[in-house]
Amino acid sequence: MEAGARQFDPRTPEERSERETEFARIVAFTDGVFAIAITLLVLTIEVPQGSKDLLADLRHQLPDLIAYALSFAVIGRFWLLHHRFFAHLERFDSRLMTLNLTYLGLIVLVPFTSELLGDYGDDVEAPVIYAVVLAAAALVNWSMVRYAIRGRLVNPESRVAVAGSGELTGLAIPGIFLISIPLAFISPYLAEISWALLFLVRSTLARRRS
Amino acid sequence: MEAGARQFDPRTPEERSERETEFARIVAFTDGVFAIAITLLVLTIEVPQGSKDLLADLRHQLPDLIAYALSFAVIGRFWLLHHRFFAHLERFDSRLMTLNLTYLGLIVLVPFTSELLGDYGDDVEAPVIYAVVLAAAALVNWSMVRYAIRGRLVNPESRVAVAGSGELTGLAIPGIFLISIPLAFISPYLAEISWALLFLVRSTLARRRS
Amino acid sequence: MEAGARQFDPRTPEERSERETEFARIVAFTDGVFAIAITLLVLTIEVPQGSKDLLADLRHQLPDLIAYALSFAVIGRFWLLHHRFFAHLERFDSRLMTLNLTYLGLIVLVPFTSELLGDYGDDVEAPVIYAVVLAAAALVNWSMVRYAIRGRLVNPESRVAVAGSGELTGLAIPGIFLISIPLAFISPYLAEISWALLFLVRSTLARRRS
Amino acid sequence: MEAGARQFDPRTPEERSERETEFARIVAFTDGVFAIAITLLVLTIEVPQGSKDLLADLRHQLPDLIAYALSFAVIGRFWLLHHRFFAHLERFDSRLMTLNLTYLGLIVLVPFTSELLGDYGDDVEAPVIYAVVLAAAALVNWSMVRYAIRGRLVNPESRVAVAGSGELTGLAIPGIFLISIPLAFISPYLAEISWALLFLVRSTLARRRS
Predict the structure, then answer these.
(1) What residues of chain D, 98 to 127, have a C-beta less than 8 Å from chain A?
(2) For B30-86, what is each residue's pLDDT tens digit?
(3) Using CB atoms and an 8 Å cut-off, which of residues 73-102 of chain C contact chain B?
(4) Could you tell me if the ipTM is greater than 0.85?
(5) Which of A68, A208, C5, C194 has the fewest CB atoms within 10 Å distance of its CB?
(6) Degrees, nearest 5: CA angle B62-B63-B69
(7) Which residues in chain D have Cβ-Cβ distances shorter than 8 Å to C210?
(8) Cβ distance D8 to D146 under 8 Å?
């Protein structure tokens, strides 16, 4: 049952080069889950049943479409960040894999929270739940990067590049979602607009570094 | 957060050979999204509930089946084109990845537009929405190829082979979908028939080159 | 648009070794579609809504569960056959890819035909549609193998191993499904039982060769 | 049809190194099915339709969310075990592939049993069905590991590491699910709590070995 227990022991983490196939499987599984979650978003846009005035009924689906676009961009962005982090990873252990699965468990909830947002975007509950799930996902991601740096799962030369994700600046993304929670109580739309900062943060950081 | 910001900077694009694993992940994610979107099409064909006359009820699902066949062929064709383009790609940067995600965001909408077409193919709205989404996808694809050629993300020797997709002939596919929009206002069926040109264009081009 | 048209020209087929990455993408896409289609089968088993007597309601889902098991075995078997055929493939061209996409378009229909079979297994239409789709898939597979042998897309030494699939014995699987169609008109159950031959054929052939 | 029959003959199993591509396909297909099954779990959490009191209605979905978290952890854990076992596999044959497909056929049922558990967790039937499916999956996994050891599909040096899964300790996981079945008749909640042992077993074993 615990066939590979020793290899996954945190104290003797796996070298990526030695176990390239296993690492590839973890990456492929992660990418698979991301790809499926992002594609399942299409099921959140409902096709009107027995509609008499299709144009009017489709107009009512507009919040669904906006929630779709937002969630596609958010999952896409989270995947890019994960992708960049894993590119620097040189070793992995069982704790990192547990953190990664927890992270995926939150990402997979997005099609649900997104449908909720599309259907009940005027209510305070929908944006709050949306923000809570993504703040949690971003925090798990942050702790995963932090753990990888401290546990020397990334190479010393990559540490500077990855550091941003594990330190204060890495808290920007969970921060945006956490701050949007009280905003939702003022106005659900205010919370939704605040999420746009997610994409501004990126360009600002990218500009500063170049 | 912006761990790999430098490597994805458009001015210093990544070499495919150097970062084969990362490139493989992008390709695998893209293929995954295509494979899921094409397979989710089956959910657009409804199984009659509590049917008394199954044969009659299934006959009513015939437009669903036609929409399925059309959309399967369209997504399959778009995947083949993407596949051929990526085979020539030697470098990638963050802008190409953003374009690619935008492109995927439109492809993933096809199961929705396809279900709409199967259920409301007699209305003008369904074929118009179908054509708008695919014209947008084809235009994003065109600009992605154009950007790759101009940004020297493809090798000089491949530039001739890829060029067709980034220049005037590359506008044939978005053109077919754009022209079908006014046709849908004359007759929804006329628009649907015009999409068959998508597959004729292919054979004509293939014949001319051989 | 037809960036790779030349390479996919049937007269100058691609060498697998030269374009290993592209071949890997085709295989990955095919496997992805198979994996998604086989997993979507779970959606054909309905969870009773607001049930008062869960045990009784679940008993009514028994045909759904049998259809699930049958379809899982059938898709699994078709995947194994495809997997073995592709292992011998040394070259590919655009016609093989079109045949492969057509084949996948029929496999992806199985979750629909399987749900139909689970819900309307007593009617003649459900097993007939099920058999027609799988007979068509098996025939496309047969013609794909035949084309690969004639077009020298498999190596001479593999030709003997693959031959069975492209010749008379290769017609056993489509034959079983075709013969079951008239049987369904005598009794739907007779057709369903006849499909079990699919798994007997296998062991007989395997025994003869060993 | 039986193109690769000889290679998959149990008496002359395939060497992993010789047929790396084929082995990679089996692994990719398995990972794909796991990734899709784990992601489809999100569809078991229902979005309330036309809710007047969203907070109250969402509270009723709490069992759905708990079932989701449990099933995500269970599928994740089964995937980790499968992943570790396959890392030691050096050869494969047709019987191992049939066992693997049977195993996957049970894993794919989890989104169904999970939805049942979320909707009918107070009834005895739901936890019993949940436990039966997972006990069966764990037993098939156990017999797969056992077969691999006896059929010398794993290397002698790996045999010690894998042995735990194929011997008495390997029966711990099916054992937990089997024992929970009679517990469900005392109280459904008792069965559900007993499944937590699944994650305790792990840490105990890991501690003992380190």
Answers:
(1) none
(2) 999 999 999 999 999 989 988 888 999 999 889 999 999 999 999 998 998 888 888
(3) 94, 97, 101
(4) no
(5) A208
(6) 90
(7) 5-6, 9, 11
(8) no
